[in-house]
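FORM 7B: Structural annotation worksheet

SECTION A. Query
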Amino acid sequence: MLGYHSSHLLLIHLLSTAVMVGIIWVIQIVHYPSFHYIDKDRYVSFQNFHMNKISYIVIPFMSIEAISGIILLYDDQSVIFIISLIILLVIWTLTAFYFARTHQLLANGYKKDIVRKLVQTNWVRTGLWTLRLLILITYLDNTLI
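SECTION B. Predicted structure
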């Protein structure tokens, strides 16, 4: 059973994950596919706009999610919570080493195959974040009972 402060931190952790799940689904279903419809002459400006502005949304929530998870790890080393954090580490690794690089490639101009691959591979992050949320909801139910 988590203490008072830990249970509040777990709620913050869960909410930040839920926000990221909402964001990643919008990106997956609407935003990334829309890259195919941007005027090719304006694509470089669009991609730079995207990379700049999306950071204002995802960096705070991803940071809250990671920091709260690390702090919670000190109170709870249960297998299910550690699995959820491993999934988060995989998401961060994919984001840093694949998705950031892919967006940098697109910053040079529209490339249909790269956008198509971006949409396809982002299903991995979408699935992993959704799985994390389901794990955390289950974890929360078991922890607060």
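SECTION C. Observations
The chain has one domain: 4-144. The chain has four helices and no strands.

SECTION D. Sign-off
Analyst initials: ____
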